[in-house]
Model the fold of this input.
Amino acid sequence: MNVVVLGSGAGALSCSVELSLAGYQVTLADLPQFAANVEAVAERGEIRLKCPWHGETAAPIAATSTDPATAIKGQELIVVSVPAFGHDAFAALLAENLEDGQGVLWVGEGGGALALASALRGAKKVHIAETNSLPYGARVRGPALITASRKAGGTLVSGLPNAGNPL
Done:
């Protein structure tokens, strides 16, 4: 399965690593103003992670983009990991470009799922979910390099009901 991760900070990079290591083909995409973060990954073709559970490892990233609208086309799953102040911008972008049947997971809490549901106003049949927190704390330590530490208690996920996926 191909997955697009939107964002290029520590949360998005750590989600990209975990998905890649789990066997998914990951595209990392962010808005043009964050091109330097995306280009650091594009130049290396991977994200390096240092953490207690994986040690020091590198995860391949299949593609990168500074055009999220194009990157999400035809993708089954879109993971959004951006700060709460970016939720409205990404919700508007997604509302314009999502296709029926796509799934969007907002990682890191903050109301992104509600922002997207509001922007869509029921216009498209998509699956929307959000986590209560990032799965773990992470920090960008250099170009395409992050460190992470596990959080206790796990991460919860909740989906919003829709006509095609009632809860």
About this structure: DSSP finds five helices and eleven strands in the chain. The helical segments are 10-21, 35-44, 68-71, 87-97, 112-120. The domain at 2-160 is CATH 3.40.50.720 (Rossmann fold). The mean pLDDT is 93.
